[in-house]
Amino acid sequence: MASFVFVPGAGGMAWHWHRAVPLIRAARHEPIAVELPGDNRHAGLAVYADIVTRAIAERSDVVLVAQSLAGFSYSASSNRLWSSIE
């Protein structure tokens, strides 16, 4: 079973993935739609990367899906994750 971590773009709403989540679940995978603090203008890329990294946690079979502006969050969090892999 894979875990699909869905990261929204500008606005940060997990709701953007509401159509994909049931399809992933029906395929017997774990969908995780991340909610980012898009309405908090003080929450920068580091905060977004923290949230994405926590969503991935200790999972090993992860598909990280980033939409639009989430490419920046994806990049920052994947750099953190890859640096922790030996």
Features:
86 residues, three-stranded parallel β-sheet, 3 helices, globular
The residue-averaged pLDDT reads 87
Largest sheet: 3 strands, parallel
| Molecular shape | globular
**How many angstroms does the end-to-end distance come to?**
23 Å
Q: What is the β-strand count? A: 3
What portion of residues belong to β-strands?
15-25%
Order of SSEs, N→C?
EHEHEH
Query: How many H/I helices?
Result: 3
Helix- and strand-based class?
Answer: alpha/beta
Helix content: 25-40%
Summarize the structure.
The chain is α/β, with parallel strands linked by helices and 86 residues long. The protein has helices spanning 20-26, 45-56, 70-83; strands spanning 3-7, 30-33, 62-66. The mean pLDDT is 87.
Structure description:
This protein has a three-stranded parallel β-sheet with strand order 2-1-3, sandwiched between helices. The chain is built from three helices and three strands. The two termini are about 25 Å apart. Helix 2 (about 45-55) packs across helix 3. The longest helix has 14 residues, at about 70-85. It has one domain (about 5-85). By secondary structure, the chain is an alpha/beta fold. The relative contact order is 0.24. The model has no long low-confidence stretch (mean pLDDT about 85). Helices cover about 40% and strands about 15% of the residues. Helix 1 (about 20-25) links the parallel strand 1 and strand 2.
Please render the helix and strand layout as text.
Blueprint: E1 3-7, H1 20-26, E2 30-33, H2 45-56, E3 62-66, H3 70-83
Parallel strand pairs: 1-2, 1-3
Helix pairs in contact: 2-3
